[in-house]
């Protein structure tokens, strides 16, 4: 049984940083694509960052480029999202997702290719 457990959310002032973690069990993070998504109140869930784990290729949505970094620690079987220079628009529940099969680059930030999801962790950025 695959489980993805996010942690590291919280409340931070604008300009601050947070690091989210996604600990995987029953799934080896080095095998397929993994990603971070977020959902703000009243909005659809959007892809934020993806990591093509057989390699080290990453992809980010435009609004977080240069501020967020997705990376993994194979030894800990954990995916991370380092978030810097946070602003109130980053306020959302953040979810990690993992795929069972290879994912086309054009779909890395879409929900449909991902088979496993965590329960989410709340990030609140105050102005």
Write structural notes for this entry.
The protein is mainly beta and 127 residues long. Helix content is 0%, strand content 48%. The protein has strands at residues 3-7, 10-13, 18-25, 34-39, 46-52, 57-60, 68-73, 78-83, 92-98, 116-117, 121-126. The strands form two sheets. Strands 2, 4, 5, 6, 9, 10 and 11 form a seven-stranded mixed sheet that branches. The chain has a four-stranded antiparallel sheet with strand order 1-3-8-7, with no helix packed on it. It is globular and about 40 Å long.
What is the helix fraction of residues, given as a range? under 10%
| Shape type | globular
Averaged pLDDT: 95
Overall radius of gyration? 13 Å
Question: Which terms summarize this structure?
Answer:
127 residues; mainly beta; seven-stranded mixed sheet; four-stranded antiparallel sheet; globular
Would you summarize the structure shown here?
With 127 residues, the protein is mainly beta.
SSE blueprint:
Blueprint: E1 3-7, E2 10-13, E3 18-25, E4 34-39, E5 46-52, E6 57-60, E7 68-73, E8 78-83, E9 92-98, E10 116-117, E11 121-126
Parallel strand pairs: 2-11
Antiparallel strand pairs: 1-3, 3-8, 4-5, 4-9, 5-6, 7-8, 9-10, 9-11
């Amino acid at each position: 049984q695959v489980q993805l457990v996010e942690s590291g959310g919280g409340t931070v002032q604008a300009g601050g940083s947070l690091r989210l973690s996604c600990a995987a069990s029953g799934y080896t993070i080095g095998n397929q694509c993994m990603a971070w998504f977020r959902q703000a109140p009243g909005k659809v869930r959007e892809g934020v960052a993806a990591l093509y784990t057989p390699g080290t290729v990453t992809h980010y949505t435009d609004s977080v480029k240069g501020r967020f970094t997705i990376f993994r620690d194979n030894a800990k079987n954990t995916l991370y999202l380092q978030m810097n220079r946070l602003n109130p628009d980053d306020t959302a529940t953040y979810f990690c997702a993992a795929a069972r099969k290879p994912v086309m680059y054009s779909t890395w930030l879409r929900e449909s290719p991902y088979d496993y999801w965590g329960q989410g962790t709340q990030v609140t950025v105050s102005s």
